[in-house]
């Protein structure tokens, strides 16, 4: 019993899994889960729910736009660094006038 914290975590995990299984079995028996899809659909189509979800959608979209901008900035910075250090292997336009 040298690993008491690990054993306690395992017992809690087993207990939580058992409680979840018990709840699911009970829900299946009394018919709660048969009504669940319709309940979720009704909740998602509720105008108040859609109004609450709108700011979250905007936040996610703004976050995605910010990530795209950061990605472009990182690519530009990497190209500048490679050009400055001479490690850029991308084809360069040669000036045929001086060749």
Write the SSE topology.
Layout: H1 4-30, H2 32-45, H3 47-85
How would you sum up this structure, described in words?
Residues 80-99 have a biased composition (Polar residues). Residues 58-79 have a biased composition (Low complexity). This is YtxH domain-containing protein. Residues 58-99 are annotated as: Disordered. There is one protein chain. 81% of the residues lie in helices and 0% in strands. The protein starts with a helix and ends in a 14-residue tail after the last helix. With 99 residues, the protein is mainly α. The chain has helices spanning 4-30, 32-45, 47-85.
Rg calc: 29 Å
Strand segment count: 0
Q: Counting H and I runs of at least 4 residues, what is the number of helices?
A: 3
Percent of residues in beta strands: under 5%
Q: What's the helix-strand series?
A: HHH
Note the overall shape.
Answer: flat
Distance between the termini: 78 Å
Largest sheet: none
**Average pLDDT, all residues:** 77
Low-confidence stretches: none
What is the helix fraction of residues, given as a range? over 70%
Structural class label: mainly alpha
Summed up, what is this model?
With 99 residues, this protein is an all-alpha fold.
Keywords:
mainly alpha, 81% helix
């Amino acid at each position: 019993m040298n690993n008491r914290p690990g054993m306690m975590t395992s017992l809690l995990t087993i207990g939580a899994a058992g409680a979840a299984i018990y709840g699911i079995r009970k829900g299946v028996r009394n018919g709660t889960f048969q009504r669940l899809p319709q309940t979720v659909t009704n909740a998602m189509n509720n105008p108040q729910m859609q109004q609450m979800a709108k700011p979250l959608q905007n936040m996610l979209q703004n976050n995605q736009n910010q990530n795209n901008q950061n990605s472009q900035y990182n690519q530009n910075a990497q190209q500048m660094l490679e050009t400055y250090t001479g490690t850029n292997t991308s084809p360069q336009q040669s000036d045929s006038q001086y060749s």
